[in-house]
Amino acid sequence: MLFLLAILVGILYGAAVYMLLRRNIFKLILGLIFLGHATNLLIFVAGGLTSGQPSFLRGLTGETAGMADPLPQALILTAIVIGLGVTAFALTLVYRFYKVTKTVDFDQLSENE
Amino acid sequence: MTAGLFIFILLLVATVAPFLRRYLGNYAGWIYAIWPFTGFLYYLSLLPSINDGLIITETYAWLPALGINFTFYVDGFGMLFSLLVLGIGSFIMVYAGYYMRPYPMKGRFLGYLLLFMTAMQGIVVSGNLLTMFVFWELTSVSSYLLIGYYHEKPEARASALQAFLITGLGGLALLGGFVLLSIPYGSYDIAYILSEPNIIKDSNLYLPALILILIGAFTKSAQFPFHFWLPGAMTAPSPVSAFLHSATMVKAGIFLLARLNPVLGGTEIWTYTLSITGVTTMFVGAWISITQTDLKRILAYTTVSALGTLVLLLGTGTEYAVNAAIIFLLVHALYKGTLFMMAGNIEKKTGTRDITQLGGLFKYMPFAAVIMIMALVSMAGVPPMLGFLGKELIYEASAAAPKAHYFILTLGFLTNVIMVFLSLRLAIDIFWGKEPPYSKIPKEPSVSLIIGPFFLVLFSLLLGLFPSYMANPLTSKAITAISPDNDAIVLKLWHGFNLVLGLSVLTIISGFITFRFRHLILPFIDRINIKYFRREFTRVFFSVLDAFLGFTKVKTKTLQHGYHRFYLMTIFVFASILVWIMIWRADPVVIELDFSTMPLNLVAVVILIIAATITTVASDSRVVSLISLGVIGFGITIIFIAYSGVDLAITMIMVETLMVILAMAVVFHLPKYKPFSSTGARMRDTLVATMVGSFFMVLVLQAGTSAMEIPISEFFKEVSYTQAYGRNIVNVILVDFRALDTLGEISVISIAALGIYAILKLKPSKIKES
């Protein structure tokens, strides 16, 4: 399964890079979202894959052997939320950008100043 | 008092001088001269003990760990230079205080002059190469300010820039040379380096160090082909020319060469380079000066010639040559300082310094005329002025030069004939000659303007009349300091009938003949110059400068093109190349394709995500691309659930839902997708994307197979319930162990929300107004 997920991460990164290189500013935002997904998944996969063993303590002391690693999950959780903030802000900027410049093309922008 | 303390207080005086000027009024120059003159007396009081062999060294720690200290080193040579800098400097302060009275910002001007004096005094008593470098650069900076003093004039700014760039480039070369020089010694200490002259000569760093140091010295001392900045610097006010361009700044290069003569000198390359450069500069300077008519430019070119003579003498390096160098240094400083100050006086009293517009001034200012004529006599090398002794020694040295002495002697002779001719021309044309209509009647210059020239000429006369009593004690230790193998020669005004005396007489006679027939000779020289020497160095300099600026503009436009996607592309390409090199070097990844660990439902999810990704990227419909983006998000959620990331899945569902709604809301305000990029651009971007994507794939495979350290997660698992009383370990980490991080995260979200609110509320019309 690791192999498949590695391919998935690679494709997500490829899509992110491709979108970041577009001239349309909205596609650039899509690229940012891809980048977030790809990185979250990268951390998740690199932290080790554990099937059906969430990091929950059952008893008082609890059996922890075989349990999923909680640390990468905590990191990703933070990243997801921050990612939402960044994306929302960027989307609003794009909206305002278009209202002011009347274009979504970066090259048009550099000509019009 | 100590040398270091003196310089420190001088710097303080320079700092407060601009602000105190208005309270001191017209006496500011006299008051600012007090401290330099105190220094002059201090060094004069050291004279007897220095002549007994005393050498003063002082060290103030600066960066002791790197061997960089403010070390001061006063020997006979440093003392002689200190006397010149501070003695002439004191007179210059008096002169400048009066001279600059009609001009604005005179306080600042006096401050710059004092700053320059500090720097120059620092150079001549430096005992550490880097200390010297710091003061050396400070002279370049302060001279930039002084030359560009009339900053509203474009030519003053251009001259200042030119002088600064040339001496500044030389300064950089000098720093490199100093560092190379210090490497074999492991020290920047000049006293130590002087005590072990053979270490550098045996090192293979000798040649590079010598070349760099010579570039520094030659640019500073206006040697051919760097000589052109000096005449250009004549746009500066006369006090600047009298101080910087006669006795001090331009002599800094000479000082450096002489100071390092025991270490670097004596080799064949030293002798050849210095002799050839010196003799060329000496003659070119004199030759150009013949046809000039601006008094200050004439003096500037004769200064270039004198600097060439000094370099030639240091290159020759014989006993006579070293003696001649030190004596001529003194001679030149005394008469050239006087002449520049007098040039300023004449310009002030008549409104011009074009010698064709001057004449008959003797009857208006006889006292000033006598002073100036005596300085010219010294320049011509006629007894009884000190200049005579200087020229005799130069002839002796040239005649005894080890190589090519006929050549050197001939050019030296021609140069001196030109000096005699110029002296006659300046004296007779300015003070007698045909009197032009002056707009107002010229008067004798006032005391402040004439006191400096008077004393300098008086010294020159006394030193010339009583050389063994006065000139010898001043210079003998300087001579042995820069050339320990040679002795100081006892100076005499009269030393019998010999070749040198014959040459002197011939020089003076030739000078007179040239002057007598100048109406024939000058047009002839003009024709030669126009025909063969039309290239102006200044113009070449500025066209090179323009070409360089043009080149940097093109370079900046190429690298800083302003297209964000090309910046990104550069980063992506180079980063992936570097990572690929690392992957190449690492152990190969072993891929185990075990289909039994691949649940079919998850395989289906992965394929779905990949399909949705391709759709998002390729779709030309905004709605389709956003819907597939949602599919990707929810697909990833399923992967999280399958591999025990329950909290992640919950968060992801909420975030994805919000994100798609937000994007939908925005995208309908935007125009439809249009194909902006060409097919070629798409292919190129696909290639870049593949490079980046593939290395991330390999990275994941390597991360999954490499052995890790025991994660700190074990700690969280153990204490999650016992200390934080929570069973959901991920949540406990977020709200307890790393609670401050989560607080930061909440702040980021709040700030983003505030920003969004502000952006939406801002009216476009207001943006345009502001």
Oligomeric composition of the shown chains: heterodimer
Class inferred from helices and paired strands of chain A: mainly alpha
Q: Which percent range describes the beta-strand content of chain A?
A: under 5%
Give the distance, in angstroms, between the N- and C-terminal Cα atoms of chain A. 50 Å
Q: What fraction of residues of chain B sit in β-strands? A: under 5%
Summed up, the helix count of chain B is: 33
Report the span from N to C terminus of chain B: 61 Å
Q: What global shape of chain A is seen?
A: elongated
| Average pLDDT, all residues of chain A | 86
Task: Report Rg of chain A.
Answer: 19 Å
Main sheet specs of chain A: none
Order of helices and strands of chain A: HHHH
- Compute the number of strand runs of chain B: 2
The chain-level structural class of chain B is mainly alpha
Shape of chain B: elongated
Largest sheet of chain B: 2 strands, antiparallel
Largest beta sheet: strand ordering of chain B: 1-2
Q: Report the total helices of chain A.
A: 4
| Unreliable residue runs of chain B | none
- Total E-strand runs of chain A: 0
Helix content of chain A: over 70%
Your description of this structure?
The complex is a heterodimer of chains A (113) and B (770). Chain A is mostly helical. Chain A has 4 helices and no strands. Chain A has helices at 2-20, 25-46, 70-101, 106-112. The longest helix of chain A has 32 residues, at 70-101. Chain A is elongated, with a radius of gyration of 19 Å. In chain A, 56% of the residues are buried. The model of chain A has no long low-confidence stretch (mean pLDDT 86). Chain B is mainly alpha-helical. Among the domains of chain B are: 265-516, no CATH class; 564-711, Four Helix Bundle (Hemerythrin (Met), subunit A); 712-770, no CATH class. Chain B is 75% helix and 2% strand. Chain B is elongated. In chain B, 46% of the residues are buried.
